[in-house]
């Protein structure tokens, strides 16, 4: 085979690989060898231009969106569900609010079992320099509503966000995330915007197996663990209607504000200029022909895809990939 033609094929393959990697999103796990594991799903994000060493004021305006409902999680769904007041902390690499592999602190236990943030506030204060700021939202008696959380500051020394809220009633089940680093590992800049979706977690402090189980301490205490289809309690809380997966119970969308000045030149700052909206329809919220999108695409589509926007998304990705391959191949053939 002619060397130039071989080079063209190699470059085309490289273009395909780079394009696919670019579409797959950024890295939110720490590099290999670090101690943290990912406790959340990043649905969307936007890279920013603010360098990690920026010395001015940086704060995120976050919106909490509830998605825990009888429609999405029908098995054993409680009669009067609520979220405890969500609590979020900005902190350093040396602090951990909770992890998905270690035993819960007393503060985590108090939130997961009782929905009280008092002990966690004391842990926050005792952490000294390792913690920067803690914000608390309002208790939510409608678990499909949304709320704007107070803005939270971050710095280069405190680039991690962790959050918790209790599923009420429950033995010790909670939603949230731990150790979201809002500085990109690739670009070393702050994310302009990020949408974080929560899994369902068991604090490992209570042995109850249903939403309304009587208090029964876990002895010995177990590590915090994610509730999945494979380890779910026998009454199958949180499962989807067809019991194939656990739909996302909540999400947070956060937008970065830089400095203290106006966001829109010439107009005094107003939070409404930067706040994420309270309600955003998500593909996994939609039902097609009475069937969940997760299963509709498995049955009728080419592989798994979540929601009505999948056709356009897959088509766009395919067109971008083909265009990159054709452009690179044409350039290489022209050189040949």
How far the N terminus sits from the C terminus, by CA atoms, comes to 13 Å
Number of strands: 12
Could you name the ranges where pLDDT drops below 50 across 5 or more consecutive residues?
14-25, 287-322
Rg on CA atoms, Å:
23 Å
Helix-strand blueprint:
Blueprint: H1 3-23, E1 40-46, E2 58-66, E3 82-83, E4 87-91, H2 106-114, H3 118-126, E5 131-136, E6 146-148, E7 152-154, E8 160-168, E9 173-181, E10 193-202, E11 225-226, E12 250-258, H4 293-300, H5 310-335
Antiparallel strand pairs: 1-10, 2-6, 2-7, 2-12, 3-8, 4-5, 4-8, 8-9, 9-10, 10-11, 10-12
Can you walk through the features of this model?
- The chain is an alpha+beta fold and 336 residues long.
- Helices cover 22% and strands 22% of the residues.
- The chain has five helices and twelve strands.
- Strands 1, 2, 3, 4, 5, 6, 7, 8, 9, 10, 11 and 12 form a twelve-stranded antiparallel beta sheet that branches.
- Strand 8 and strand 9 form a beta hairpin.
- Helix 1 runs antiparallel to helix 5 and helix 2 runs antiparallel to helix 3.
- The longest helix is centred in the C-terminal third of the chain and has 26 residues, at 310-335.
- The chain starts with a helix and ends with a helix.
- The model is unreliable at 14-25 and 287-322 (pLDDT under 50).
């Amino acid at each position: 085979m002619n060397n130039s033609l071989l080079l063209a094929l190699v470059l085309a393959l490289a273009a395909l690989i780079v394009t696919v990697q670019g579409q797959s999103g950024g890295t939110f796990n720490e590099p290999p060898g670090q101690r943290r594991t990912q406790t959340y799903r990043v649905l969307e994000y936007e890279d920013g231009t603010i360098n990690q060493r920026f010395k001015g004021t940086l704060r995120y305006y976050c919106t909490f969106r509830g998605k825990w409902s009888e429609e999405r999680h029908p098995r054993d769904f409680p009669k009067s569900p609520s979220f405890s007041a969500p609590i979020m902390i900005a902190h350093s690499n040396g602090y951990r609010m909770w992890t998905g592999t270690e035993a819960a602190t007393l503060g985590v236990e108090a939130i997961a079992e009782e929905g009280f943030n008092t002990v966690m506030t004391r842990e926050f204060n005792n952490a000294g320099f390792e913690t920067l700021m803690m914000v608390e939202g309002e208790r939510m008696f409608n678990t499909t509503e949304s709320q704007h959380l107070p803005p939270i500051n971050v710095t280069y020394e405190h680039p991690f966000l962790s959050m918790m809220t209790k599923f009420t009633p429950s033995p010790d089940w909670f939603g949230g995330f731990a150790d979201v680093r809002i500085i990109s590992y690739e670009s070393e800049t702050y994310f302009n915007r990020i949408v974080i979706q929560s899994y369902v977690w068991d604090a490992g402090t209570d042995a109850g197996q249903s939403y309304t189980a009587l208090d029964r301490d876990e002895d010995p205490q177990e590590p915090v663990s994610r509730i999945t289809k494979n380890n779910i309690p026998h009454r199958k809380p949180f499962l989807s209607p067809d019991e194939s997966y656990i739909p996302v119970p909540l999400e947070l969308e956060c937008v970065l504000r830089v400095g203290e000045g106006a966001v829109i030149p010439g107009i005094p700052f107003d939070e409404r200029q930067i706040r994420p909206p309270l309600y955003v329809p998500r593909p996994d919220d939609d039902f097609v022909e009475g069937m969940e999108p997760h299963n509709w695409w498995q049955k009728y589509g080419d592989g798994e895809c979540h929601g009505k926007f999948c056709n356009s998304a897959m088509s766009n990705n395919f067109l971008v990939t083909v265009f990159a391959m054709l452009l690179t191949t044409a350039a290489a053939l022209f050189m040949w």
